Amino acid sequence: GEGIVVLASVTDGKVSLNTATEAELMALPGIGEAKARSILAWREQHGGFSQIEDLMKIEGIKDGVFSKIEDYVRVQ
After folding, report:
1. How many other C-beta atoms can be found within 10 angstroms of the C-beta atom of residue 55?
2. CA angle in degrees (0–180, nearest 5) for 65-3-32
3. pTM value?
């Protein structure tokens, strides 16, 4: 069976978009390596996320992906 991965920047089961690592982002439904890297690149470029909806400004993240992960992410 799979081991349970303990994620450092997770609180209340939510991943902080502003502190998450690539591995933590990839643990989200619908987020693979490419999207995780896009999220990290966007975060660096814009100095962080002010709201989770900012994710939809990233190429490759549309309503479908966003709706899968919106309950699992936060910005604080």
Report:
1. 22
2. 25
3. 0.82
